[in-house]
Amino acid sequence: MPEKKPCARLFLDSELIADQMIKLDRDQSHYLAQVMRVRSGEEIALFNGRDGEWRAVVSNVERKAVTLACRSRLREQADESDVWLAFAPLKKTRIDFVVEKATELGVARLLPVITQYTAAARVNVERLSARVIEAAEQCERLTVPSIEPPCALIELLSSWPGERTLFVLDETGAGRPITEALMECAPTTDGSFPPCGFLIGPEGGFSSSELDAVRKRAFVTTVGVGPRILRAETAALAALACWQAIVGDWR
Length: 251
Hints:
Radius of gyration: 20 Å
Structural class: alpha/beta
Shape: elongated
Order of helices and strands: EEHEEEEHEHEEHEEHEHEH
Helix content: 25-40%
Low-confidence stretches: none
Largest sheet: 8 strands, parallel
Strand content: 25-35%
Oligomer: single chain
CATH class of the largest domain: Alpha Beta
Number of helices: 7
Mean pLDDT: 93
């Protein structure tokens, strides 16, 4: 008979060890007690991005405080994809969609970038962090992507690690086909692929001066995602899906 699946999955930013008693904070307690309606004895899966995934048992349920008993490790911590996504912020529901789906597609770091034509320059990092945690809990990954504070495009380019290829989606059609560029990524000696990132511009595209600045960087490869004009969130997910299929963990 297959083992019963935990009734919920939670991210905790604390150490996870066997026989540890964990008192959840008010929000997580409310979620388990009032939304999921858990009862004593039910199992919960826990992860913290460092110690793998753990099985915990609900020890006590109160309206504002749920206590768990951490029992045993379900999965060891494993290496995950090392891909970053830099993107021009979008309006609320659309940026929520981007960070949620990017989390599901394995992104390790999210970097909002302010460009000349960015329509929504204000970014609520705390709110987006909560969305990312929810997405990581749902998709059963073992890590949670980090979200950086917004920065200007020139700051991103200046601080970008030279050994990390930056694939910039170029809506002018001057970039190489993304699949062609990705297939030329050479694996390292252990069979893994080198770190990379993607930069997605705003709805209005990059300005000509921004494209000039981008193309001058040795670590940049400009790419295209087909003959159609895609919305920014569609372009981001298309690029990540191509990456996962060609060099990521879909292989």
